[in-house]
Structure formats: structure tokens, C-alpha cells
Design brief:
Strand content: 35-45%
Number of helices: 2
Strand order of the largest sheet: 2-3-5-6
Oligomer: single chain
Low-confidence stretches: none
Shape: elongated
């Protein structure tokens, strides 16, 4: 799925500035019950050489609609995919899951570049 995400050159690579995108209608499926899970996904990063193109990011998120995946797994997968693609200076992905059965969940994953 990562290859569907497009990028463009960072217009200000000499400066650290925070980019934050929030997708308010993220949907995946519970792998146990098959019921839909709904979340708000926030991607916050400081770009290095590239930035993420929004339409392709939206389509990437939509690809999870029929995926049976746990909250923790999807949040970490998004973080890993974007980290690998963008190689940002910093990246945080926050998923805020709507309540089901009286329980809400917030999962936060941070990506750090591996030192060579």
C-alpha cells in the first residue's frame, strides 16, 4: 500500500516546521468481530527532503476500510510506512478511536530514523 502514497519536494528544507494532517473519517475492521472501527488519524511531522501529497494520503487511508486490523497495529503500520517513505526529521501518528462498548482508545506511535 505504501507505493500509492505520492510525495513532493519540501519547499523549505532548510527550516524545521511542523506539518499536521488529520483524517477525520478513518475506518478499518475489528479482526475479531468484523465490525467497523472508526478513528481520527493525525499525522504530525517535520519534513526533510519530501512532503506527503494529501490526495494520495487519503486514498492510502481508505485502503484500510476492509482490513481486519487491531488499533495498535494500524497505527504502527501507518507510522512505519510514512517514516520509510518520507524519511522525516520527526514523525508522530496519533489514532483516536471512537467508542465501542463504552471504551475509547488513543494510540500514539513515533518514528525515528535509524542511525547508520
Amino acid at each position: 500500500m505504501i507505493r500509492m502514497i505520492e510525495t513532493f519536494p519540501n519547499p523549505a528544507p532548510r527550516r524545521d516546521y511542523v506539518i499536521e494532517h488529520t483524517h477525520h473519517e478513518f475506518t478499518s475492521m475489528c479482526p475479531v468481530t468484523g465490525h467497523p472501527d472508526f478513528a481520527e488519524i493525525t499525522v504530525r511531522y517535520v519534513a526533510d527532503k519530501t512532503c506527503v501529497e494529501l490526495k494520495s494520503l487519503k486514498l492510502y487511508f481508505h485502503a484500510y476500510r476492509n482490513e481486519g486490523i487491531y488499533f495498535e497495529a494500524v497505527t504502527n503500520k501507518i507510522c512505519d510506512d510514512l517514516g520509510k517513505l518520507l524519511q522525516p526529521r520527526s514523525l508522530t501518528v496519533i489514532s483516536n478511536w471512537k467508542g465501542r462498548g463504552g471504551v475509547t482508545s488513543v494510540i500514539t506511535a513515533e518514528w525515528t530514523a535509524r542511525k547508520k
